[in-house]
Give the backbone structure.
Amino acid sequence: MRKKKAEIMDAGAMRRALTRIAFQIIEKNRGAKHILLAGVRTRGLPLAERIAHKIGEVEGFRPPVLPLDISSLRDDVPRDSRPEISFPDLPGLEQSTVILVDDVLYTGRTVRAAMDAISQMGRAGRIQLAVMIDRGHRELPIRPDYVGKNLPTAQSERVQVCLEEIDGLDAVLILE
């Protein structure tokens, strides 16, 4: 078990960051009509739901949220231990902007797997990326479009995004 080193964001800071991300999504995409939010399980899904709710408050239209399980596409798990998951075809995907939502962007490998999952469902018109925390240390050339907070970290540190729906509180922590 890792020890808490610092609290970087509390519930209020997280709420403000998600509100800012929602407004940036609306502005960059000229509304929300053709947006599909894809929340990477586990913590990306509740974040996507929160962003969709905020967009719905502002635009009067709540974009759909797709739960995205990428466990079968991860390259850090041996192929023979990956679960078999089939991805449905998504009609109308070519006219949609899919916004992948995740909690922490680190090496970029989770995002690559999420893009592979979307590709297996069809060809998206565009794919964008929203993350609560961008901590750097990329291994792949992936850059987020929307960021709650840039947080340079040491590789030995771990960033934990805690969510009320899963952990009983909203906070972003650095663990030793």
